[in-house]
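Board notes (copied after class):
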Amino acid sequence: MRWDIFCKVIDNHGDVGVCWRLACGLATGGDTVRLWIDDPSALAWMAPQGHDGVRVVTWSEDGAGQEARAAQPPDVLIEAFGCDPAPELVARFAEPLPAGAPRRVWLNLEYLSAEPYVERLHGLPSPVFKGPGTGLTKYFFYPGFTRSTGGLLREEDLPARRARFDRAAWLAQQNIDWNGERLVCLFCYEPPALGALLARFEQAGEPTRLLVTAGRASRALPPGPARRGALSIQWLPHLSQTDFDHLLWACDLNFVRGEDSLVRALWAGAPFVWQIYPQDDDAHHTKLDAFLDWLEAPPLLRRLHHLWNGMAEGELPDVGPVALPPWRAAAVAARDRLLEQDGLLARLRQFVAQKS
C-alpha cells in the first residue's frame, strides 16, 4: 500500500516527530511512504539514518510542483494536524479510479487529547467542497487513550526493547557522567516553576543529575554553574528519536513537553511531568486536566502539573524519592492499560480497510 503523509513544521519539531514515527511504522509493516514536509532539517538529527521504505519530499506553501504532478497517487493521503496537502497531488488523488479498484482514503490526523469530544469525532467524515479535491471525503482520525479513539503510536517490538535496555551502558555511550545520582530529564518550553524546581534539587538531601535537552530547554535554564549544591547539570546535544526514547528509559523522573514526548514518556513507564503546549485562550488547561483524570494522577502529581504549567501558584510539592513511587505506579498502570489496546498503526490500518 502507498501512503503520502503531509507535514507542516509549525514549531518545536513535535509535528515532524509524530509524522516520522508514523511513516517509519507504516514502512516497517511493508508499505511505501512519502513524507512531504516543508522543512525537513530536523530529520538530520532526529533520524540521521533515514528508514527503508520512507522517502522524504520537500514542499512549500507554493505547492510541490512537478514532483506532485508526476507522482503516482497514493492509496492513502494523510494530512497531519490540519495542514493543506499540495494541491497538485490532491488533483492526482481525485482522478477517477479504474473499475474495481479500491477507493483511495483521505485522513486528517488530528491532535492528541483525552477530552470527551475525541471519541465523538473520531472517524467522522468531512466532505470537501472546494479546491482540487471537491467531491471527495476526508475522515478525522483522532489519536487517543481509549478504545474508541485512534490509539497511540507504538512499535510492535517496543516493550521487548524496553525490557532489554541497559541503562549503564547507554549512559556511558552518551558520555553521561553518572555516579548513581537520581537522573532527571528536562525537555520543556519555559515553565514558570523552573527556578523553583532547580532550587528544590539544589537543596535536596540526595544528589540529582539534570540532563537538559538541546533547544528550548537549554535556553530556558537560568545561567549558572554546572554544579549547584546537590544538583549537577549536564547539557545534551540533539538526540535521535531512538536515543530520546533511551533518555526517558534511563531517567528516574522525566519532564516532557508537547505530544510526541508525552506518548514516549508513557511507554517509558517512569514518573513524568507534562508541559502542555500553551494556547492563548487557555484551552490547554481543560486538555491537561482531562489527561490527568485519565492518568488517575495522585494529588501531588496533579498539583505539580498545575504549577509547572502556570495554572496555579504556590510552593512546589516534594519531588524527592518519597514522592516518586506513587507517581511511578500511576505511570506503569497507565502504560499497562494502553498495552492492552491496539496501537495507532493497527487501528489506522483497520480504519483504512473499512473505507477503501
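Comment from the instructor: The longest strand covers residues 2-7. DSSP finds 15 helices and 13 strands in the chain.
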